[in-house]
Automatic annotation (TrEMBL):
<protein>
    <submittedName>
        <fullName>Uncharacterized protein</fullName>
    </submittedName>
</protein>
């Protein structure tokens, strides 16, 4: 029996030594940009190698610490890598991750600095994530336009999960990316907190050839803006999907509900500002003191032989206030030699780049409009009546006097712009006078208008529009 045990250990020991030695060597090369220190490395079980107290220091001001690094299963094809106690510190940034689990990683240790990066994983879960960052006064001013002191932003996330990760040096993709239980605060906003139950992205990809970022779908659930643990505003649910193929681009978004609780908001503003807030509340909500909004929109750009057709249908509903529907249809001609597949490929490479206006004119250059139609319908649900009453009191006029002065102003504008034709002016006045509850505007775009003017000179396009109006 003793001889058998000795023989078995003689076979096992080299394998144990090989796994622990390889783990230590791989961790030593975890980052080529910094100095790596590894504490203890040992074999906990036949299928479990463990390293403890790992640190990576870069440029003396950036440090990554990992309390424990476990490799489970075959070292060459691990079942799982589990990291615990991760802390990343850098100038003005500190991030902590309680536990990071990587299922079926392509390697036991990913070489993140490798010039020919290749890595994959079936599933990644980060738990108990905390990110604290300091935003300088200069950055705050660049964002808001006003002088501002430095701010400290803290974000906590219960879990971040990524499915089907596949990354190379040029591109990457994720089947889905989900954040659960997010909470965020800012030092300059005492008592205010942003909370989010979940945010899920699907069909997530990025990379070559333009550094594009594409998201096939998004679902946001239970976003809340709280003050001293009292919810002031929020979004119940927002979903969005998009798809790009060789023949069409489609998108669809649904907002179940967004809301502002003015009753709670009024108690949070300074006393001298409350009258103005109450006036806005009265106009927007009537007696409910809760502003709610829902909507849905769908858009398609599809190939039609040598041309394209862009069309969209959307609506927005604010109960007790107003409803709005928007529909458009624009046929587009492709330049000679250009195909729809080439255009959609360019759009896929371009879509959701950080600066959506960058090179937009160049992107649409191969496309020429063949006219088009835009329809906007306003459905009054009480807001116009309340708005006219408040405006009349504010101006010190009766409603009839206010309508007369507005009519004179609109007629003067009629002489300058096509959007204020007699038909449009008459329809708007009917709506304001309470003689109609629905206003419809139809805008026709002649084929002669170059599409680049829509980007560079939107006011000039107004001169070419044919506008008609009607009421019900």
């Amino acid at each position: 029996m003793v001889s058998s045990l000795v023989f078995g250990m003689s076979l096992f020991s080299p394998l144990v030594l090989a796994d622990t030695q390889r783990l230590e060597e791989d961790l030593a090369h975890w980052s080529d940009a910094g100095h790596v220190r590894v504490g203890e490395v040992r074999q906990v079980a036949d299928d479990l190698s463990r390293a403890s107290n790992i640190s990576i220091v870069e440029n003396s001001d950036t440090r990554l610490q990992v309390e424990q690094y476990d490799v489970e299963g075959d070292y060459d094809a691990p079942d799982r890598v589990v990291m615990s106690g991760l802390v990343l510190t850098a100038p003005d940034v500190r991030m902590e991750v309680g536990r990071l689990v990587i299922d079926e990683p392509s390697k036991a240790v990913w070489e993140l600095d490798h010039p020919e990066l290749e890595l994959s994983a079936a599933n990644i879960v980060a738990q108990d994530v905390t990110l604290a960052t300091r935003v300088s006064g200069a950055d705050m001013r660049a964002y808001s336009g006003d002088p501002a002191p430095p701010q400290r932003i803290t974000m906590e996330v219960d879990a971040i999960e990524a499915l089907a990760l596949d990354v190379s040096s040029e591109h990457g993709s994720l089947g889905s990316l989900t954040l659960k239980g997010l909470s965020s605060t800012m030092s300059g906003l005492d008592g205010w907190r942003l909370a989010l139950e979940s945010l899920a992205l699907s069909d997530f990809s990025w990379g070559a050839p333009r550094g594009a970022l594409l998201v096939g779908g998004m679902t946001l659930a239970e976003l809340a803006v709280n003050k001293d643990d009292v919810q002031v505003a929020g979004i119940t649910r927002l979903t969005s999907t998009s798809e790009i193929t060789a023949e069409r681009l489609t998108s669809h978004s649904v907002l179940d509900e967004a809301f502002v609780d003015f009753n709670q908001l009024i108690g949070l503003v300074p006393i001298e500002d409350r009258s103005a807030i109450r006036m806005v509340t009265n106009v927007m909500t009537g007696d409910s003191e809760r502003f709610t909004m829902s909507g849905e929109g769908a858009g398609v750009i599809e190939a039609r032989g040598a041309s394209l057709l862009a069309h969209s249908d959307s609506h927005l509903d604010i109960p007790g206030s107003f409803g709005l529907t928007l529909d458009y249809e624009f046929p587009l001609a492709l330049s000679k030699g250009q195909t729809a597949e080439e255009l959609f490929t360019r759009f896929a490479d371009y879509s959701l780049v950080l600066d959506p206006l960058e090179e937009l004119g160049d992107f649409w250059l191969p496309v020429k409009p063949l006219g088009g139609h835009l329809s906007v319908v306003y459905h009054n649900q009480g807001m116009i009546d309340r708005l006219m009453s408040v405006a009349a009191v504010t101006m010190g006029q009766s409603r009839s006097e206010l309508l007369a002065s507005m009519s004179a102003e609109l007629e003067q504008g009629e002489q300058r712009r096509s959007l204020t034709s007699p038909q449009v002016v008459g329809s708007v006045l009917k709506l304001l006078a309470g003689e109609a509850s629905t206003l419809r505007l139809d805008l026709e775009l002649p084929p002669s208008v170059a599409i680049h003017k829509l980007v560079n000179n939107p006011e000039g396009v107004v001169e070419h529009l044919v506008v008609t109006a009607s009421t019900e």
